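Appendix B, record 7
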Amino acid sequence: VSATFLAFVPELFYHGINAVPDIAALTAMLWGWIAGKRWLMQGKVLHALGCALALALAGMSKMQFLVAGVPLLLEFVQQRNYSPKRVFTGLLMGAFAAVCTFGWYAYAAFLVKQYGLHEFVHQMRHARSIAEGINILLKTLFSDFPEIFTGYAMLPLVAAGAYAIVKFRRPPLHLFFYVLACTAFYFLVQYQFLHHGYYAIIFLPALAF
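Structure tokens (predicted):
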């Protein structure tokens, strides 16, 4: 059901043929998340390697897609298996993804300065006032969300699913922290959402769940 939802998100259709890297970053993040969960369950080095490589690729494409590390870290802590080998592997995975991401962004910032490619922005652009922040939030919730992220046809199903999660079972903790991390990112760069709604693609895994 989740995969079917993702397949019919209007925003993915539109940006699937554009040059924005968010679709590729989302794909890499999901593969990294899956590999990370399998490493947590089975402890295989191959899964750890796949997770580190996929999350590094996701972060290098768009830094915010490193956010999958938040639910993975939470699940790691919840399992309470802190063997030296496991802790070292986890730290190595996280360090690899982070170093690749921030190293690439540092190089990209150098290229921007060196060649004057100022259309590439490497900064946090939050709302410039409370009023502007509220206006952007309302646009995100009542325009972007129903029109391009769920589509009006899927909106009732998303609402029913959200109600079912709250009513009949406790929302998974890792999902809550994923949404919390994405929300923190949203407010850090909220001004970008004024003209670039595709930044909210990072929320799609939570909607699909």
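Remarks on this record: The chain has a mean pLDDT of 83. The chain is about 75% helix and 0% strand.
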